């Protein structure tokens, strides 16, 4: 039952991840087929991320009382119905509605997923391991989803992809119907959670530092992930379907790095690993973006002769991968399980805000500058994260000393 629960967590989380991270493809398709501008397209990110904020603020501390299992099943069935409706309507307004519902559902599922990991994990090391496994499965699902979308985009009837996604939501819901969780204890613990507890946690210096790091990390990830297909199309002059397909290098790098990070973090300090990763990200940006200048459009371009920047720049994901799950695990492992729903709510809210602002700012930069110049601005949040991590480590050591 334990293994089945982890599989169910990974599958449902990955299913919502496919929908959440399809925004880059949908932005491109909305611009080309639904009459949207680039700024309108960037608003799709806001539709989903602000909905995540709303779900986390109003529902995060109530999910346990309703039941993690029932909440996940309910969200999956609702998303199946939403996908079928969107495939029928096929308008930009429908896309906005889809991402509003996706954001609400993801906010609920993420709280339920991380809280369930807290129930399953026996110690901090196992917590980090399960977290990285589930987040790695999330990225594998996102990667598969982009290839699925690109196949439908290449075939012309791209809205039919939502029929497949509706079926996947249904399969995930059926798997959860076979899982049993020890939720009475979780429901009792949830009685302590509420907006006041979230506010109290947010005012703690250690929590504030952690939330700043997560906010700027997601700003980077969503800025790259959402606009990489457009970067490939407009700056590197790749065909539309190929632009989408090559953006999966970024997602594959995230998945590989996240799945491998559990092994690495057991052998080296998490602070050393994350600082090294941030340094590598900065180097890749400074090396790869100059290679994107002066690329000449060609009608017969393929994978074998694509610009070097198309392969090199997405490798950012390999070094970005360990940052988010590691910071989340460090924060949650230091808290009693009763406080996890409130902390997860804060994590989701600040992650969503970072994603919304990151995509919107990148969209504005793409609108007024070249795509290559837009991505140089990612060096600023990289520096901010690097400054917060040593402070987090000192706070963690102080807390451990007090606990001892």
Q: From the alpha carbons, calculate the radius of gyration and give it in angstroms.
A: 20 Å
Task: Work out the helix count.
Answer: 20
Distance between the termini: 35 Å
Number of domains: 1
Low-confidence stretches: 188-193
* Percentage of residues in helical conformation: over 70%
Which CATH class is shown?
Mainly Alpha
Describe the structure in your own words:
With 404 residues, the protein is mainly alpha-helical. The protein has one domain (2-403): Growth Hormone, Chain: A. The protein has 20 helices and no strands. The protein starts with a helix and ends with a helix. The model is unreliable at 188-193 (pLDDT under 50).
Short précis:
The protein is mainly α and 404 residues long. 81% of the residues lie in helices and 0% in strands.
Task: Please tag this protein with its features.
404 residues; mainly alpha; Growth Hormone, Chain: A; globular
Would you spell out the secondary-structure blueprint of this structure?
Blueprint: H1 2-20, H2 23-33, H3 38-59, H4 63-66, H5 68-89, H6 92-120, H7 124-155, H8 161-176, H9 183-190, H10 195-202, H11 205-234, H12 240-246, H13 248-265, H14 270-288, H15 308-312, H16 316-320, H17 323-333, H18 340-368, H19 371-376, H20 379-403
């Amino acid at each position: 039952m334990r293994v089945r629960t982890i599989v169910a967590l990974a599958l449902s989380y990955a299913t919502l991840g496919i929908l959440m991270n399809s925004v880059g493809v949908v932005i491109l398709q909305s611009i080309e087929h639904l009459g949207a501008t680039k700024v309108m397209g960037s608003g799709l990110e806001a539709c989903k991320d602000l909905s995540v904020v709303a779900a986390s603020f109003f529902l995060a501390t109530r999910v346990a009382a309703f039941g993690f299992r029932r909440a996940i099943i309910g969200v999956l069935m609702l998303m199946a119905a939403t996908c079928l409706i969107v495939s029928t309507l096929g308008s930009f307004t429908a896309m906005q509605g889809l991402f509003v519902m996706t954001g609400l559902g993801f906010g609920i599922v993420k709280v339920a997923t991380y809280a369930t990991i807290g129930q399953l994990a026996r110690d901090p090391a196992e917590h980090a391991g399960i977290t990285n496994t589930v987040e790695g499965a999330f990225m594998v699902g996102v990667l598969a989803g982009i290839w699925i979308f690109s196949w439908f985009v290449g075939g012309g009837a791209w809205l039919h992809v939502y029929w497949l996604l509706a079926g996947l939501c249904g399969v995930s819901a059926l798997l959860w119907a076979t899982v049993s969780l020890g939720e009475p204890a979780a429901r009792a613990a949830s009685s302590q959670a509420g907006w006041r507890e979230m506010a109290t946690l947010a005012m703690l210096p250690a929590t504030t530092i952690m939330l700043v790091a997560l906010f700027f990390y997601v700003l980077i990830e969503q800025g790259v992930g959402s606009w990489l297909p457009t970067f490939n199309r407009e700056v590197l002059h790749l065909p539309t379907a190929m632009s989408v397909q090559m953006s999966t290098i970024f997602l594959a790098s995230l998945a590989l790095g996240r799945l491998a990070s559990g092994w690495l973090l057991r052998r080296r300090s998490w602070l050393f690993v994350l600082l090294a990763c941030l340094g590598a990200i900065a180097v890749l940006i400074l090396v790869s973006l100059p290679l994107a200048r002066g690329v000449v459009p060609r009608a017969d371009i393929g994978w074998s002769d694509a610009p070097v920047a198309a392969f090199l720049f997405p490798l950012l994901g390999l070094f970005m991968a360990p940052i988010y799950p590691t910071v989340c695990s460090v924060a949650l492992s230091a808290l009693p399980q009763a406080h996890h729903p409130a902390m997860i709510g804060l994590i989701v809210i600040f992650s969503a805000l970072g994603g919304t602002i990151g995509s919107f700012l990148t969209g504005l930069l793409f609108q007024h500058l070249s795509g290559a110049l837009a991505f140089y601005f990612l060096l600023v949040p990289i520096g901010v994260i690097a400054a917060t991590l040593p402070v987090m480590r000192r706070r963690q050591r102080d807390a451990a000393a007090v606990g001892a």
